[in-house]
Amino acid sequence: MFSIPDPDGYLSASDVKDVAEEVIAPLPLPGVEGSPLDPGDIWLVVILACVNQNSIWDTCNDTNGTPCDDTVLTWLHTLDRDWLDLVANLLLGRLAMTILDPDRSRIVSIDFVDNPYHGEHCADEGELCSMATKDGTTTCHHYCTAYVVSNGKPVTLAMTYVRNDEDEADAVERVLARVENYPFEIDLLLADSGFYNERVIRRARDIAAPVVHVPKKGERMKEKLDTHESYMTTYRMYKDSEQGLRFPLAVVVSYQNGDRGKHGEVVRGYVACGVTDRSAKQVERLYRKRSGIETSYRLLRQARGITTTRDPVVRFAIMLVAALLENLWLVLRWAVVARPRRGGRDLPEEFTFKTFCDWIRHELRGATSAVGDQSERGWRAGVTGTGRGLTGVSPRPIHWAVSDSCRQRPSKSGSYRLFGAVNWTCLDLRRRSSRD
């Protein structure tokens, strides 16, 4: 269990590092029997590699007091993918529900994330998937993710590893099952054309109203999209099959008007289950709400460590650590650093994800300020919880002072309660203003 710093005190770089360690440390790492190290030592190296956007080898080589890279990788090779997947998703849920109000309904986006890979497979060919050319390769490790974008907060709800030799619909069902267990209601499920699949649409309909972008493939679909006017209709997937699926189809005609140097009409289709009371244009506007997940991808890349290992489980672990760090930053930014005000919380521009990573890096490396530069920088908050902003002007990493009394009052920070049938252990802040 992790505890967030009290919003009425001072948040320090040390606090940020400590809570990051508390969040990542529960990830299951069997380890090496007889080793003097423990899993926490290994995860600290992984955290440092992620915030550095560096490799484990470079991190161990450049940082005093860390184990050698061979030892770290030997430990990481003992990871069990299924157990890691389960615990990491519980941790993602715990962080998400720290700042999401369970009484409000949500719009959830699901997507596939490709992590480009150069080289051969580790154990079998099913580990690697194909993708469009990116970073000089067409092979990747494939992940399915779910996000909720609320008031600019791209919160990761779930992530799972996808093998090439499994049906993608199986991976999507795993993610949807986890999303379904969240305590809030889901209004819409948004997905791109990669999820245009009969099984996925059927499963999504059981949870919420799915809006899925339709690929322009097949003669019947091309006929539906051959128009100059937006309209609502119905479409039957696999028309002559027992698996045929009938669903509402929104056909939208728009004009590019020089966007990205393109002109003329563009016609798009969307699966519009559960939103037939909307016009085709309104359905497209709903779908565009998923564009916020691009912000999450950019942040994820800022905390993704580099590795040359071929082990897909180690690579998956690094992606999960990056996602957990991103969610943790959102928790601290929204529940601790944000300034309460009428009409919504004032999110400080200074407390960026890069700053968050810099503070963790500074603490893990044990860096000290240069001689003559003794300025402190931090987020100062008065007893009313109103942030006074980041102090100091030096661009170098900072450290703060914080009262230990903040850590000794867990009852003031919040209490614990269970959510759902999967025994979510979530932190309830008991401060409605710190949740959205």
Automatic annotation (TrEMBL):
Protein's name according to its UniProt entry: Transposase DDE domain-containing protein
Any one GO molecular-function label of the UniProt entry: DNA binding
Top-level taxon in the UniProt lineage: Archaea
PANTHER family, per database record: THIRD ORF IN TRANSPOSON ISC1160, TRANSPOSASE IS4-LIKE DOMAIN-CONTAINING PROTEIN
One GO term (biological process): DNA transposition
Transmembrane segments: none
Domain Transposase IS4-like: 144-308
Residue stretches in coiled coil: none
Pfam family, one: DDE_Tnp_1
Native organism: Halorientalis persicus
